[in-house]
Structures are given as C-alpha cells and as structure tokens.
Specification:
Blueprint: H1 15-41, H2 47-69, H3 74-80, H4 82-115, H5 119-127, H6 130-149, H7 151-154, H8 159-183, H9 191-223, E1 226-232, E2 237-243, E3 257-262, E4 272-275, E5 284-290, H10 294-297, E6 308-314, E7 327-332, H11 336-345, E8 350-355, H12 365-375, E9 378-382, H13 395-401, E10 409-413, H14 416-428, E11 436-438
Parallel strand pairs: 7-8, 7-10, 8-9, 10-11
Antiparallel strand pairs: 1-2, 2-5, 3-4, 3-6
Length: 444
Amino acid sequence: MTATSPPVPRVATTPAQTARLVLGGFVLANLLLVEVLFVAYGTGKNGILTIAKFFGLHAGLILMVQLVLIARLPWLDRRVGMDRLTAWHRWVGFGLFWTVLLHASFIIAGYGALYSMTPLATWLSLAAVPASLFGMVAATIIVVVAATSVRYARRRMSYEAWHAVHFLLYITIALGVTHQLLEGTTFPGSPIAAGYWWTLWALVILALLVGRIGVPVWRNLRHRYRVAAVVPESDDVVSVHITGRDLHRLPARAGQFMIWRFVGHNPWWQANPFSLSAAPDGRSLRLTAKAAGKTSAGLRNVPVGSRVFIEGPYGAFTGMHRVRPGALLIAGGVGVTPVRALLEEGTGPTVVLYRARSTTDAVLLGEIQELARSRGAQLHVLTGRTVPGNSPFDPGNLLALVPDIVEREVFVCGPPAMTEAVLKSVRALGVPARQVHAERFGLG
C-alpha cells in the first residue's frame, strides 16, 4: 500500500525564491543608494580620480556582498543552500577583482596627472602613505585569492591550502576598512551619507561574526556533542552516532549536512562536510562516510566519548522546498546518505532510484529497502556500467522508470557527472525548475 499524506499546498513563491528576492532587493537598494550618493558627493580632485572613487565605492559594496554570501546566515542558508551561495560568492569575487584593479589603475593615473609624475613614481609616492599602503596590500591579497580561485588552480590545491589562502580575505577586510577610514574621502561632504556607509559596514561585519563564529560556538556550548557509537557498515564505510544535550532544539532537517571536527582525533583545521544519514530525531545525529580521504578513513578509529565540534546544520536540500506531494529521490555513491534521511522523513508517494556499481557497493541498502517497505515507496537499485548512449538517467530511461516525473519533486545527490546527467534529463523532460533540488557541497 502506498503511503498517503495531506497534499503539499501550492505556493506562489518558494522559500528559495523569497530568499533570492530579499537578497537581491538588499543588494539593489544599496547599489542604487550608493549611485545617488556618488553623484551628490563623489567628485574627486580631477576627473580621473572621480572615476577611481566610483570604482572604489563599488569595490567596497561588492566586498560587503561577498561577506554576506559566506556569512552562513541560517535564514539564508536554509533557503538558498551553501553550495549556491558559495558559487555566487566565487563569481562575485571575480567582479571584485576587476573592480579593485580598475580602482587602483585610475588612482595611479589620476595622481600621476595631478602631479605630473610617472606611474612608477606615483606608485612609490602612494606606497609611502599608510592609508594608500593598506589599500595596496588589500588589493594584492584580492589578486592572490582570485588567482587561486581559478578552476585550474583550485583543482590542484588541497582544501586546507585553499582555505588558508582564502583566510587572508579577513585581513583584507581589516585593511580595506582602515584604508577607507584613513583616506576620509568616501563621503566627506555629508555626515549622513558617511553614517550610512559605516553603518552598512558594521552590519555586514556583525553578520559575518554571528554566522561564522557566534552561532557555531553557541550551539556547541549548548549541545556538547560527543561520539556515542562508531559502527562499520562495510570495509570502507563507517557510521558515527553523535549525542548531546537538548538536540531537539537543534534546527536540523533530513537532507542537510554539517561540518565535523573530531577534537583530539585530527588537527583542528581538518574538517569535513558530511550529510546526516538519518533523519534527526531530537536524540542523536548520524553521519555515514566512505574512506575517500585521510579524515574520513580514520573515522572508524574515533574513540567513543570523544568531543565533536560541529558547524551547521547547513543546506537547502530539504523537504522545506517541496511544492508537490510526490517525490523522486535519486542517489549515487555516498550521495545516498542525505537521500536516505529524506526517505525516512518524507511523506507522500515516493520513488527512489539508487545508482551503484553493484548491490555490494550500495551503502546502507538494507536500511533503504526497509524504509521503502515501511513507507510504501518504490525502490529501484540501478547497477552496472554507464556507457555512452546507455545511461539509466537518459530522458527516455528516466521516464520509463518514473512516468509521472513531471508531477514530482526531484531530489538528486551523487557524483558530479551523475548529478549533471540527471539535471540535464529532467530539464529535457520539462520538470519545472522549482521542483528540482540538487546537493553539491561547497565550502566558503
């Protein structure tokens, strides 16, 4: 018998769309205000320096947007997802790079024209001024970070090395703000305009401190996470069960992930994002990981009773975004962990497609089979090799497995190639974008 539940109400605007509207409205409103204030108070010592000031103001605003995107604000993360916010952060970062470069170029050109100096002499003269020197160092850091964010470079760096380089951006914030304060030329003609600008900076920095430090520290002090059990699932897969105080107050949902640090087991800077592999029940949390790296491979050796420092929950890969009662859950590899949690939490008619090389490689298959039986869900375990022109996720094959796919909410998590193949097929089949949800881990 198929499980039934009250139909999910149709909504005019999804939580993700609402969050995008709020975020976009915030950015556009401040951009418009900056433009108005620049016209009123943005005149420099000559035309070139006026242009330089234009790019400087916009570099500051872009940097604020960058910080909001990686602040890990719970309201925004639950609706948009860290993966999408991090992708936006990356592309906005390249805009910041070019804006800073133009600002610096016009500064040198403007002062060179003002004092009839060569570019090199102008640069050396500006470097002797503390306010300008702070700006130069900040600009250099932004160039270095942008260079390491290019896909070619990023793929050849460990996450720890990449994260260490990006940590320099916090120094950039301090240098950039100090540069603006010492220059004193942001909005010299209007105390109200200057007050707006610095209030905006204060709010953005406060959001960053709350999201990146305040909330994680407060939650860890409140819940005091500890390892309750370590359960090998296979030769290279292990589940770790976590307990703590008042876990019913932790706003975690099936499909979300957390960033885990096992105190005393790995160095502090080694952290991994692992999805919850069971729906949170208010008493414990569970992660299931495959031995794909040094940290995950060592999880089976974590002592019971160890302290755990956890950031999160993060991610928008949850039932919060459902607009249809029926669901299609698609998993591949260890991407099955959030899908298994969604199956446990979910209601309504559900189909599960589980892609694995073989049934012996299908992590948590027994649990998923039992959950599917108890919830009346259809489960298809898709094994074998994928060859060009013959993939279980080709549009025709997908439609044969799930004829009413257009009427369902689609959740997909798995290797990048599989995920992209599924997304391409559901688009070809006409599944509305608001009904399609994919999980891609991306840390910022």
